[in-house]
């Protein structure tokens, strides 16, 4: 004998069944909240993870020449960034930056990328003369940030860089690291012991040089007005020099 369900019983039965179904759905992740990003559009925080996924496909599209390239021809910027460039385009890009603009720090050609190209990673894909030129530009860019002078010794002429922050702008007596000779960093001539820079051009013979070395060894100085040599004794704060007329 069939049992007839009334309207009130139907509503109770439907409510219970709906609650069970709703409970099952709630235990699963909602469809609208699931991640629906295609595999190729996912952004990996670690460039190495993206490189490993890309190597499975084997074919890439260069962002410069828009040509398909194989995984073996893909440029890898030492895992600093993971843009899709072929080695040939990167080599031409470096050549244009170095030869035409003398650019030392070459930025990645990727859009909105703030990374720089790694020098030694690019070494194998560019000619040796271009690599040497790039190294020279980098060294020159580094040296320009410091006070520099060339050794006045004609047989040396080495570049001497003042990397010290304490004596910056005031360094005078310097020693060439190549020929080991002392010279004046300011007037760029051989060291003029006991004489000022403006007097260094008046040195005539070895007597002047020997006298200047003696003054320097005795911690003496020359008066700007008359050029007389004075020696400071102990803790004297003032030095008085009498001229011939005053004697």
UniProtKB/TrEMBL annotation:
Q: Report keywords, A-Z.
A: Metal-binding, Repeat, Transferase, Ubl conjugation pathway, Zinc, Zinc-finger
According to UniProt, the reaction catalysed is:
[E2 ubiquitin-conjugating enzyme]-S-ubiquitinyl-L-cysteine + [acceptor protein]-L-lysine = [E2 ubiquitin-conjugating enzyme]-L-cysteine + [acceptor protein]-N(6)-ubiquitinyl-L-lysine
List required co-factors.
Answer: Zn(2+)
Could you state one GO biological process linked to this protein? protein ubiquitination
Say which enzyme class the record assigns. Answer: transferase
> Which superkingdom?
Eukaryota
Pathway of action = Protein modification; protein ubiquitination
Q: Give a short account of what the protein does.
A: Might act as an E3 ubiquitin-protein ligase, or as part of E3 complex, which accepts ubiquitin from specific E2 ubiquitin-conjugating enzymes and then transfers it to substrates.
Question: Cross-referenced PANTHER family, in alphabetical order?
Answer: RBR FAMILY RING FINGER AND IBR DOMAIN-CONTAINING
**Protein name per Swiss-Prot or TrEMBL:** RBR-type E3 ubiquitin transferase
Please report the organism this UniProt entry assigns to the protein: Citrus clementina
């Amino acid at each position: 004998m069939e049992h007839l369900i009334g309207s009130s019983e139907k509503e109770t039965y439907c409510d219970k069944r709906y609650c069970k179904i709703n409970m099952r759905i709630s235990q699963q992740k909602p469809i609208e909240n699931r991640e629906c990003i295609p595999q190729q559009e996912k952004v990996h925080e670690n460039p190495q993870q993206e490189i490993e996924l890309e190597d499975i496909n084997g074919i890439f599209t260069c962002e410069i020449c828009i040509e398909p390239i194989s995984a073996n021809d893909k440029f890898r910027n030492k895992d600093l960034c993971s843009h899709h460039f072929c080695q040939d385009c990167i080599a031409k890009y470096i050549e244009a930056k170095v030869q035409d603009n003398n650019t030392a720090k070459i930025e990645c050609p990727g859009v909105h990328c703030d990374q720089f190209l790694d020098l030694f990673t690019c070494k194998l894909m560019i000619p040796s003369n271009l690599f040497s030129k790039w190294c020279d530009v980098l060294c020159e860019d580094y040296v320009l940030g410091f006070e520099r002078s060339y050794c006045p010794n004609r047989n040396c002429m080495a570049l001497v860089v003042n990397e010290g922050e304490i004596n910056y702008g005031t360094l005078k007596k310097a020693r060439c690291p190549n020929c080991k000779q002392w010279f004046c960093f300011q007037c760029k001539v051989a060291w003029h012991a006991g004489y000022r820079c403006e007097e260094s051009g008046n040195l005539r013979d070895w007597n002047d040089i020997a006298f200047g070395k003696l003054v320097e060894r005795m911690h003496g100085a020359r008066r700007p007005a008359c050029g007389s040599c004075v020696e400071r004794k102990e803790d004297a704060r003032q030095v008085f020099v009498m001229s011939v007329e005053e004697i």
